[in-house]
Amino acid sequence: MIDRRALLRLAAGAGTASLVAACGWDGGNAVRPLLLDVSRLNDWVGEKILFSKHRLAPEYDVAERTAVPMFPSYFISPMMPMLQDPKTWRLQVGGLVRQPLTLSIDDLQAMPRTTYTVKHHCVEGWSAIATWHGAALSALAERCGMLPQARYVRFDSFDSGYSNGWDLASAMHPQTILAYGMNDNPLPPSHGAPLRVYSPTKLGYKMTKYLVSVTFTAERPGGYWEDQGYPWFGGV
Amino acid sequence: MTFVVLAGMIMSGLQIYTAYARFGERGGPYYVNAFEGHGFPSWSRLGGWLAGGLNWHFALVWPLVAGGVLYLSYLVWSGEWRSLLFRPRDIRGAIEMQKYYLRLRKDHPPQGKHNPLQKLAYTFIILLGVLSVLTGFAIYKPTQFSWLTALFGGFQAARYWHFWAVWIFTGFLVVHVILVFVVDPASLRAMISGWYRGRFPSHD
Fold it and tell me: Distance (Å, rounded) from C-alpha B60 to C-alpha B80?
């Protein structure tokens, strides 16, 4: 009798589990907010406990690079975002800064150049290796006189409003750059020309492509995928 | 409870796997994998889409790891580990036990609560559980824990071992439950309630 009851309980448990799965359940209105709360907790753990601003991502040999056609890229616009006139493109740097800046690619290339060959981690589970060239975001923050009230950075693009919000610690990491080059060449349009955010401390979707502005803020900015439920911190 | 959490972890894991259903760097070569290129059917997945699967996975990992740590601390604190952990001195007993099972020996060798082969199996499963969690961290933070990721052979290898550790774990669980039904159904009650009233006095 007892065993039969235990069996029934097991069956009921398994039944509920498969019923839940049959719906591809994301938690529904009751559980989804709880899952997002835990995701915020995980963001906090990821930023305050697991992330180190001094720890550098491992670098690879250029021979280990992934062939460019094999390195996936994407955009949210129906067509690949391209500038009508690349010469008129400027990066706006503003928000909580002493001196807002308007910079051309030449201005960015005149800054000290950071180059590294690192592994790219996508939230989907794939990875690929490439070399990136750019200017450290921390150097830019210094140049525009970032104010002490700044706690986050918002990156905006010309890809149908795609944007990302970052914690300041990750943004000021020495390997976080505004990249204008990939694999010894100018950044190709498929990977965000003329300028994109790059950092081996973040998942791919956090690294805004087709960049138009960098804004230092006191409030936490959302982001394209983050607002749809993807982890906000997205650190690796 | 553990069963529900584990089922949720596995099902959200299948949801995550479906986003990139292979192991290996972009451009290949890929690791040997019977499930390559195939997502799992929707009834076996939890989360609805990748973000949902991730959020379930990273939420359920808290009770799973907390339960695991509590269980391991209980084993250490209560001294129970002595009857579960396979140690070098159990090797001889394991061989004798194997002989008995293969009918090369007639009498059942003397044993404590669990025989040496059971100890071997339980020790293996605990190591497998620890491996699942560690490979999980290696995938979760491959830059912050790059030493751990490197220990498993890199990011894609860690994904591979994470995936297979769970299949082996699940296989063990199925065999374990079948054995319980065949050998001693009363211990099923003990598994759930914690009290045993069956025919094996050593289990009291």
Answer: 27
Amino acid at A171: A
Q: What is the mean pLDDT of residues A128-143?
A: 98
Band (pLDDT 50/70/90 cuts) for residue A16 is: low
Q: What is the pTM of this model?
A: 0.87
Q: Domains in chain A and their CATH numbers?
A: 53-76+88-228 (3.90.420.10)
Residue at which a domain ends, from B26, B58, B78: B78
pLDDT at A20: 53
Say if residue B124 is in the same domain as residue B166: yes
Structural domain range at position B16: 1-78
Cα A234 from Cα A224, distance rounded (Å): 13
Query: In angstroms, rounded to a whole number, what is the distance separating the alpha carbons of residues B166 and B134?
Result: 12
Closest-CA residue of chain A to B155: A127
Q: In 3-state terms, what secondary structure has residue A217?
A: strand
Whether chain A has a CB inside 8 Å of the CB on B43: the answer is: yes
Separation of alpha carbons A152 and A214, rounded Å: 10
Contacts of A66 in chain B (CB under 8 A): 25-27
Query: Within this chain, do residues B135 and B60 fall inside the same structural domain, yes or no?
Result: no
The tally of domains found in chain B comes to 2
Q: What is the pLDDT of residue B51?
A: 96
Which candidate from B25, B43, B192 shows the least CB-CB separation from A6?
A: B192
B26, B55, B142 ranked by CB distance to A229: nearest: B55
Residues B108 and B200 grouped into a single domain: yes
pLDDT of residue A41: 98
